[in-house]
Amino acid sequence: MTAQNLSEKATTFLNLLSDEIKEKVLFELEDEERFNMNYVPIPRKGPTFHDFDEKQKAAALDLLQSSLGKEGYRKTQEIIALEKVLRIIENDDNDKMPDGRPRRDPLNYHFCIFGDPASKAPWGWRFEGHHISLNFTSAEGKISASTPSFFGTNPGIIKTTNQEEKEVLKKEAELGFQLINSMNETQLKVTRFTEEAPLDVSSANHRKVEKLYPEGISYTALSEDQKEVLLQLLNVYLSTFEPHFESSFWEKIKDSGIDNLTFAWAGSLQPGTGHYYRIQGPTLLIEYDNTQNNANHAHAVVRDLTNDYGEDILREHYKRHHN
């Protein structure tokens, strides 16, 4: 998917909207709303699926699917579907949002576009709701940023309804446990920095994030088999991105040095009790946390330490074109 094609899909979506809905969806690229990331069920700006007719909804989903890799779109759809599961599990018809709609609502996901996709200037867009925050930036004829990228699941493993034992973030969990449980005593002392996992990812919804400490075990201190598992785990996260951006992000990580990657763990070494891990490098922070609801409620986030929201790319663009 080229940025031009993505621009065309965004423009097609916008052209289908009424003036009233278009007013809700459009923001200036520099608007502070672009950095208002969140992943809990709160009131948000931007229209939702409730506001769209079938053609508008199809165009919105086409834009979303074109902005993600196959795995990213799968996870997005399955996390949205978990809202129906939560409504059954919680069985609370009185749990409403301020606008009167159910708090658990698969239609309550918001679209915001920042800037003008039809122009040659940089622009961005966001898809966000409960347990999803996806932020995209396009500049200089390419998708220049797809972070922050957040996926969460509640329940982590569906243990009720007819979808029993379904787990949206299964590979993220399994490979993490495989890696930590392959470590010898010396490696474990370096990697596991506390026996109690944090209550959430440390980066939360902060606009800017930095490397976290302690960093954990270095890639160079892993065995060859362990290195392979770590790279498989890293690939699970990067494969959610649109293929061209995934490739450029991989190159960025390699250019900064695979040997500079680290892996850190907190909490239980077995599923069912709170656990957390992070992968870090000079340009990368990935966090996975599963502590809530008896460790059956997972949060996973990818941050680019140098280019979240495309800020690094945009600085270069403005330097060249608006000196």
Structure write-up:
It contains 10 helices and 14 strands. A hairpin with a 7-residue loop joins strand 11 and strand 12. With 323 residues, the chain is an alpha+beta fold. The strands form 2 sheets. Strands 1, 2, 3, 4, 5, 6, 9, 10, 11, 12, 13 and 14 form a 12-stranded mixed β-sheet that branches. The protein is globular. The two termini are 31 Å apart. The protein folds into 2 domains: 145 residues, no CATH class; 138 residues, no CATH class. Helix 1 runs antiparallel to helix 3 and helix 5 runs antiparallel to helix 7. It holds the Pfam family DUF3500. InterPro entries: DUF3500 (IPR021889). It comes from Maribacter algarum. This is DUF3500 domain-containing protein.
> Radius of gyration, Cα only, in angstroms?
20 Å
Number of alpha- plus pi-helical segments: 10
Strand fraction equals 15-25%
For the secondary structure, the number of strands is: 14
The assigned structural class equals alpha+beta
Organism: Maribacter algarum
Pfam families: DUF3500
Protein name: DUF3500 domain-containing protein
What key phrases describe this protein's structure?
323 residues; two-stranded antiparallel sheet; 10 helices; 14 strands; 12-stranded mixed beta sheet; alpha+beta; globular
Briefly characterize the structure:
With 323 residues, the protein is α+β, with helices and mostly antiparallel strands.
Summarize the topology.
Elements: H1 3-15, H2 19-25, E1 26-27, H3 54-66, H4 70-90, E2 110-114, E3 123-129, E4 132-139, E5 142-145, E6 149-153, E7 157-158, E8 166-167, H5 170-180, H6 185-191, E9 192-194, E10 217-218, H7 224-238, H8 243-256, E11 262-267, E12 275-281, E13 284-290, H9 292-295, E14 298-304, H10 311-321
Parallel strand pairs: 1-2, 9-11
Antiparallel strand pairs: 2-3, 3-4, 4-5, 4-6, 6-14, 7-8, 10-11, 11-12, 12-13, 13-14
